[in-house]
Design brief:
Radius of gyration: 21 Å
Distance between the termini: 40 Å
CATH class of the largest domain: Alpha Beta
Order of helices and strands: EHEHHEHEHEHEHHHHEEEEEEEHHHE
Largest sheet: 9 strands, mixed
Number of domains: 2
CATH superfamily of the largest domain: Dihydrodipicolinate Reductase, domain 2
Helix content: 25-40%
Shape: globular
Bound molecules: nicotinamide-adenine-dinucleotide
Oligomer: single chain
CATH architecture of the largest domain: 2-Layer Sandwich
Number of helices: 13
CATH topology of the largest domain: Dihydrodipicolinate Reductase, domain 2
Length: about 400
């Protein structure tokens, strides 16, 4: 059980780039990072307007002298201080991630970055290589992977509870952008539909990579051999897809499917993953994240609940309150930030042996997401043909 005590040498001096007052995702980063005494928010470039950046920084307790107009100034100024920043989070729109990540790694800073890391597969490989070369930590905020029932699912598959895995059925299909008025009234939706800012894909990159990472977490042994993608823009003014289906063929014979959508009218969030084995299946739905459905062929369905004694130890060690009380997305993210902190602490102590086996969504997971997005786009643009992975 986690109760918030510090478990590392010292709180990591941390800065944010993006995630300002007007942002969609900034608050959950701060709330999660600051929860377990592992990070101190020491500096930031919360937005591009320096006045707004300072006003906001001061309102959340950051020294106004350490609120900067851009990331280059921040890296330069902070490197002169004996108490300068050690790690950054990048929560800006997609087209800035690669440039900021590269500069941060070159400046010797640990990075926690929003997905997608970049647009091109070669850029992702470059960031992965730079992270290795500099012996730094690079975490990616695949925020759903911190849920305890995902760790339970991972352990159940590893323990053979399902038998050999045959099928992976994934969806992340919500309805809230089902008309063009979504981008007309919200800036954070508008840039997502612009290829220059969003990248070569909207919905596959924005949400599909989350569910893909859940599948990689639960069934790490499955490797994609080839895929076929068909994508649509149901809102005609959109340049990027707002719906897509992807068929997956894994090495060794397993098969998979992913449905991603922003136009699934009436659906709240709609992220689900079902893993089907020879003996049994499990299913997780992010709208009920404290539960995992467990269906053994020929037996009544079971609902496994977070915080229960019958779960694997890996599924209860990150509980923050006893079972029966709901935990949610903020706790899942907090679990990930705690893992990034432990990894950064280990890297600072040069404990590379520990890091070899320590799980967290890392730069390789981020790079696999880029490869997935680009292969989907390649397949769809070629007329929805099977493409080798
Ligand atoms: N992991 C998740 O579950 C999740 C959820 C939502 C968004 N995201 C990702 O987070 C990122 C941000 O998304 P959002 O929805 O919060 O966007 P947003 O448009 O709501 O917020 C972006 C923030 O970055 C600031 N900003 C923009 N350019 C900047 C720059 N050059 N320097 C400093 N600040 C800058 C803006 O002022 C704003 O505060 C995107 O990459 C998105 O894909 C991830």
């Amino acid at each position: 059980m986690i109760n918030g005590e510090s478990i590392i040498n010292h709180p990591i001096r941390w800065a944010m780039i993006g995630g300002g007052k007007d942002s969609f995702i900034g608050y959950i980063h701060r709330s999660s990072a600051l929860r377990d005494c592992s990070f101190n928010l020491s500096a930031g470039v919360f937005t591009r307007d320096i006045k707004k950046c300072r006003d906001f920084g001061v309102s959340i307790g950051v020294d106004p002298q350490r609120c900067y107009p851009d990331y280059k100034t921040m890296f330069a100024e902070e490197s002169k201080r004996s108490d300068g920043i050690e790690a950054i989070t990048i929560a800006t729109p997609n087209n800035t991630h690669y440039e900021i990540s590269k500069a941060a790694l070159e400046a010797g800073l640990h990075v926690i970055c929003e997905k997608p890391l970049c647009f091109k597969t070669e850029e992702a490989e470059e960031l992965a290589a730079l992270t290795r070369e500099k012996k730094l930590i690079y975490g990616v905020t695949y925020g759903y992977s911190g849920f305890q029932m995902i760790q339970q699912a991972r352990k159940m598959v590893a323990s053979g509870d399902l038998g050999k895995i045959r099928l992976v059925n994934m969806q992340f299909a919500y309805g809230s952008f089902n008309t063009g008025s979504a981008e007309a009234s919200n800036n954070f939706v508008k840039w997502r539909m612009d290829p220059a800012v969003s990248g070569p894909s909207f919905i596959i990159a924005d949400v599909g990579t989350h569910t893909l990472f859940l599948s990689e977490t639960i069934v790490p042994q499955l490797e994609i051999e080839k895929l076929l993608c068909v994508k649509q823009s149901f809102v005609e003014t959109r340049q990027l897809e707002d719906n897509a289906y992807v068929l997956l063929q894994y090495k060794g014979g397993a098969a998979g499917m992913l449905w991603v959508s922003a136009v699934n009218s009436g659906s709240g969030h709609g992220q689900k993953i079902r893993i089907v084995g020879e003996k049994a299946s499990i299913e997780w739905w992010d709208e009920h994240p404290n539960q995992l459905r467990y269906e053994i062929e020929g037996e009544p369905q079971r609902i496994l609940d977070r915080g229960s004694k019958y779960l694997y130890p890996e599924a209860v060690e990150e509980d923050r309150i006893a079972g029966g009380h709901p935990e949610g997305l903020f706790e899942s993210w907090s679990n990930l930030y705690r893992r990034y902190a432990v990894a950064i602490d280990a890297a600072a102590r040069k404990d590379y042996e520990f890091l070899k086996n320590y799980w967290y969504p890392d730069v390789n997971a981020g790079a696999r997401g880029i490869q997935f997005v680009n292969t989907c786009v390649k397949s769809a643009d070629a007329g929805s043909i099977w493409v080798d992975y």
